[in-house]
Design goal:
The complex is a heterodimer.
Chain A lengths: L2 E6 L8 H9 L6 H5 L10 E5 L2 E5 L8 H5 L5 E3 L5 E3 L9 H5 L6 E2 L8 E2 L5 H5 L5 H5 L5 E5 H14 L19 E4 L12 H4 L5 H8 L2 H32 L10
Parallel strand pairs in A: 1-9
Antiparallel strand pairs in A: 1-8, 2-3, 4-5, 6-7
Chain B lengths: L1 H7 L3 H30 L1 H4 L10 H13 L2 H11 L6 H25 L8 H4 L6 H28 L2 H31 L17 H28 L5 H28 L3 H5 L3 H21 L2 H4 L2 H31 L7 H24 L15 H9 L9
The chains are: A alpha+beta, B mainly alpha.
């Protein structure tokens, strides 16, 4: 059963304890200055944004079919069966295709480093492996970030909307976006208000399918094209040979016979 | 240096060479400074790339344009060895040389852009066959090797080594077919790289047909670059190309441009963007610039027989084509993301200086190769201008009846 996070913005009080717990878990610096930064970066995997007295959290969505994993030439990213999309730094060559490809713009880069790494939330895979919750879910004082099985969390999210319809914008962001994600968002206004990409625009198609449609044809294309090229080569050179032979036979000088 | 200058300042030709040599040294000096910043201060210090703009000038120009500009190699090899267009024989060697240098320099460019270039070989052991980047990497690696073998006979010829030439000649058909296959794959897959970004890249440049556009433009630019570099080297090295060669290339360029233009039009038509592309907007200005340079100017020029018969005008048409497709790829790599990101990306001067250094290295290596290797063949030993009689003969040649095909 794959694990997931349900973030309910209506329950969030903006205490940013998830930010600090995340920093601690990932051995990142955290102080008042970093707490005030309203963007994610290589040293801030998650951020709590505020707008009109409402809050919204951003973090890696842990797509079911992650673009970062599909585009990485050395397979440095992969989706684990437990849910997290994790990063093997020792494979990474630093092409940053993951950053360009991610529809949620989650991978961030250590631009100042001489041996830079891609940084993003990896959903505490070590904690999940030993049956614990993620650091952010554990510390959350109101339960706004909740850890659990994805199916259970989906049922719970639907339940919350049903029981308290006036409280919610009736949409679970992440349920179907780009084929579904392991982070689900509930809020009183559209998640897009806080910088999440437009759900209509990104659609339900898993991102890897856009390139998969082309990539899956390549194994067929290679033999066909090789044969075609070889065929053209043979025909155009055979024409020469025949012409030369005929010319020799007729005791003529070979002259423009290639035409 | 002074003595070299004194010695060389005797004729106008040599003064020009000295001037370019100084330019080269200045570019290299700035480039080396930027190289130092790149490897000892990091990507953040050397470039204006950010988390929002993780790919900048080096991907947009050095990689996307670099590979496109090197397409002349497979185009000319294909024309001469695959389709047996004998009269283009004279341009194969310079085209293969350009391609080989282009790919080597593309790899040099990658060593600047990759965050951890010392792990570039990971490509060979941690393979991810689903990744377009993996496909591009493998193709570029193998194709550079193929180009090396296509280039090798020129060196052997200079050294007068007969046996290795014979050996390579035996496998030449394989090299040709393999080279064109690999070129088809990676030229088009540079476009496929962007297929995964439908919601990020502006609709003017995002299209499901991107792989076709990238392949189509590679062919057009391959032809245009051959015209450009032939004329350019004729000027610089006192060589001369025969008019029928240029005329053939000009005609082929016109066809290639028409095909590209129709593909682009079809795409905009089917995606219902025709109204949007003629409405003024930030992106539209860049698109207009691109379309004017790629299609309007060269197609109009090449439609006149007078232009197709004039080396000077063909040269201008090919420059317009090359600049146009460079604009196209920079639009895809940079301009097309600005609306999504919400701000502009302007490369830092150190980014430009590294790009310039790589280009300068390309020109210098080309010059050295032409000087020491039989690149232009024995049939054109001395600088000469075509005589009236030659032009007459060229006009009468069967090539011209197909010049507008």
């Amino acid at each position: 059963m794959s694990k997931a996070l349900l973030y309910d913005a209506t329950m969030c009080i903006g205490c940013k304890q998830c930010e600090s717990a995340c920093a601690q878990q990932n051995k990142l610096p955290y102080d008042d200055k970093i707490a005030a930064e309203p963007v994610q970066s290589a040293h801030k995997y998650t951020v709590v944004l505020s707008k009109d007295d409402k809050f919204m959290r951003r973090l890696c969505m842990h797509c079911e079919k992650p673009a970062c994993a599909s585009v990485c030439p050395v397979g440095a990213f992969h989706k684990t069966s437990a849910g997290p999309v994790v990063y093997d730094v020792w494979k990474c060559i630093g092409c940053r295709y993951c950053m360009v490809a991610c529809v949620f713009a989650q991978p961030k880069y250590e631009w100042q480093s001489l041996n830079p790494r891609v940084r993003k939330c990896i959903m505490c895979p070590d904690r999940i492996a030993v049956g614990e919750q993620t650091a952010c879910a554990e510390i959350c004082p109101t339960g706004a970030t909740k850890f659990g099985d994805r199916d259970d969390l989906i049922a719970e999210a639907k339940d919350r909307i049903r029981q308290n319809p006036s409280n919610y914008y009736p949409y679970i962001y992440g349920l179907n976006e780009v084929g579904g994600t392991s982070v689900l968002i509930l809020s009183s206004v559209k998640a897009e208000t806080y910088g999440y990409p437009d759900a209509v625009k990104i659609g339900d198609t898993p991102m890897p399918e856009y390139t998969g449609r082309v990539m899956e044809r390549i194994p067929d294309f290679i033999p066909v094209w090789t044969l075609a090229l070889g065929g053209i080569y043979w025909v155009s050179h055979r024409r020469d040979e025949v012409a030369a032979a005929e010319a020799a036979e007729a005791q003529e000088k070979k002259n423009g016979s290639a035409k | 240096m002074t003595s070299v200058m004194n010695r060389l300042s005797k004729s106008a030709m040599q003064i020009k060479l000295t001037f370019w040599r100084v330019v080269f040294l200045v570019i290299m000096a700035f480039g080396l400074y930027s190289t130092f910043i790149r490897y000892f201060r990091g990507l953040g210090a050397v470039s204006n790339m950010t988390d929002q703009f993780p790919w900048g000038l080096w991907i947009g120009f050095d990689c996307l344009c670099g590979v496109m500009l090197a397409a002349g190699g497979f185009c000319m090899v294909g024309a001469v060895y695959l389709f047996n267009v004998e009269r283009l024989h004279a341009v194969v060697r310079p085209a293969v040389l350009t391609a080989f240098l282009g790919y080597v320099l593309f790899i040099v460019g990658l060593l600047f852009d990759l965050g951890r270039p010392w792990y570039i070989w990971h490509q060979l052991i941690y393979m991810n066959p689903h990744s377009v980047m993996f496909e591009v990497g493998m193709c570029v690696m193998t194709y550079t090797t193929v180009l090396f073998f296509e280039f090798l006979p020129i060196v052997f010829e200079r050294l007068n080594w007969k046996t290795p030439i014979k050996l390579i000649n035996k496998i030449y058909p394989v090299l040709i077919v393999l080279g064109i296959l690999l070129s088809t794959l990676h030229q088009s897959s540079l476009g496929s790289l962007y297929l995964i970004m439908p919601s990020k890249l502006h609709p003017f440049w995002y299209s499901p047909a991107l792989p076709f556009f990238f392949f189509g433009s590679a062919i057009a630019v391959g032809i245009a670059m051959t015209i450009f570099e032939s004329t350019q080297s004729a000027k610089a090295f006192g060589r001369q190309l025969e008019l029928p060669v240029l005329v053939t290339l000009g005609g082929a360029l016109l066809v290639a441009l028409w095909v590209n233009a129709l593909l682009r039009f079809e795409d905009y038509f089917h995606r219902g963007l025709l109204r949007q592309i003629i409405t003024p907007s930030y992106e539209a200005y860049f698109l207009w610039l691109e379309l004017t340079l790629t299609f309007v100017i060269p197609i109009t020029m090449l439609s006149f027989k007078k232009v197709r018969l004039s080396p000077q005008l063909l040269y201008l048409a090919s420059i317009s084509t090359v600049l146009g497709f460079i604009t196209n790829r920079l639009n895809i790599a940079l301009i097309g993301f600005e609306t999504y990101v919400g701000h502009h990306y302007v490369p830092k001067w150190t980014e430009f200086s590294i790009t310039l250094m790589i280009i300068a290295m390309g020109f210098a290596l080309f010059g050295v190769a032409v000087k020491y290797l039989p690149i232009f063949g024995e049939e054109h030993p001395a600088p000469r201008v075509p005589t009236d009689e030659e032009i007459e003969r060229a006009l009468a040649s069967p090539v011209l009846t197909h010049a507008g095909d």
